[in-house]
Amino acid sequence: xxxxxxxxxxxxxxxxxxxxxxxxxxxxxxxxxxxxxxxxxxxxxxxxxxxxxxxxxxxxxxxxxxxxxxxxxxxxxxxxxxxxxxxxxxxxxxxxxxxxxxxxxxxxxxxxxxxxxxxxxxxxxxxxxxxxxxxxxxxxxxxxxxxx
Length: 148
Hints:
148 residues, Protein Transport Mog1p, Chain A, 16% helix
């Protein structure tokens, strides 16, 4: 049943969930800035397939929030078709978003940085974003996957 699906993300050991017990926001441990990865999901409980491509959705979203200088590219995902976009927005040092779909439901992650992220931070957050998926059963924290 689609409504029983939960987000799974392979959380890097340098990162932690923040802002509450069932948060979908993550920050690097020992951080000196407020760079944050935020994740949202949309579970489609109907049998209707999405009629729009991920590239179209992510470009429309970046434009809606006032982003510019977009660089959109496909990437690998454990969930389904995924695209990523790096863009400029306001006074933020770095902005990147990922949009993934299995054709029915969607996962979106945004990485908004008030300070310039390190190469290691960019690698970690990219790996975490590509690990996102939806699953039926809730795994345990012991497995290394965090459900929300």
